[in-house]
Design brief:
Order of helices and strands: HHHHHHH
Largest sheet: none
Number of helices: 7
Structural class: mainly alpha
Helix content: 55-70%
Length: about 130
């Protein structure tokens, strides 16, 4: 049974045009990615970009001077290797999970974190203009 918090969180998320959407316990990591992680990342997009923009302002002030490919490579490298930004961004996703989703996340933490970072990397790379 969902709590009021869980119901409100789910209602806040954007609906994505994905197949096999359901409200029951998610059985595969692919389904978890599509039904939970992607909608949360879309919902949290502005805070994710703000966090990353703050990070590059502090740690890579010359970021805007680089060409697009160098910027994309930097984003990928940072999100894979710097625990400061990586953990902060993952927390932005986990903090808006329902209790049931959080349980699934905890049971599959390493796989979920890899998927979150992969999706987030692509999302930030695709919105480079928002980082200026």
């Amino acid at each position: 049974m969902r709590s009021e918090r869980d119901d409100r969180l789910v209602k806040l998320r954007p609906e994505l045009p994905l197949e096999n959407s359901s409200d029951h316990l998610i059985e595969s990591m692919g389904a978890f990615q599509n039904e939970v992680l992607r909608p949360i990342l879309k919902f949290q997009n502005s805070i994710i970009l703000a966090q990353f923009k703050q990070y590059i302002t502090k740690f890579k002030p010359a970021f805007n001077a680089y060409n697009g490919q160098v910027q994309r490579n930097y984003i990928q490298d940072v999100l894979k290797s710097d625990p400061r930004i990586k953990n902060s961004l993952i927390a932005s996703v986990v903090s808006v999970m329902t209790i049931e989703e959080y349980g699934i996340y905890c049971d599959n933490k390493n796989e979920c974190n890899k998927r979150i970072i992969t999706l987030m990397t692509k999302r930030v790379q695709d919105q480079l203009e928002q980082l200026y």
